[in-house]
Design a protein that fits this description.
The chain is built from 2 helices and 5 strands. The chain has 85 residues and is α+β, with helices and mostly antiparallel strands.
Length: 85
């Protein structure tokens, strides 16, 4: 689970590297906005297909979110270079 609503804290965990973000349990959406401002990304799990609390969402810290946005060399289109013969 990448999010926990504990009695004394909201805890988000990066699903890639395990980095934790811990906040006092107030203003849930304000905390989400703060994490987004820090570069965290939130994604609904495509396999479940519906919104839920914690288990249906994937969370990635700024570092891992940036890595996920990078295109793999295997996914890039190759282009040909014409020689000046």
């Amino acid at each position: 689970m990448s999010f926990e609503d504990l009695e004394k804290a909201y805890v988000w965990e990066c699903d890639e590297c395990g980095k934790l973000a811990v906040f006092p349990p107030s203003d849930f959406y304000g905390r989400v906005d703060e994490l987004k401002a820090r570069g965290w990304s939130f994604h609904l799990d495509e396999e479940t297909g519906h919104e839920g609390w914690g288990r249906d969402w994937r969370h990635y810290c700024q570092r891992c979110a940036n890595k996920r946005r990078q295109t793999s060399i295997l996914d890039r289109k190759f282009s040909t270079v014409k020689g000046s013969g």
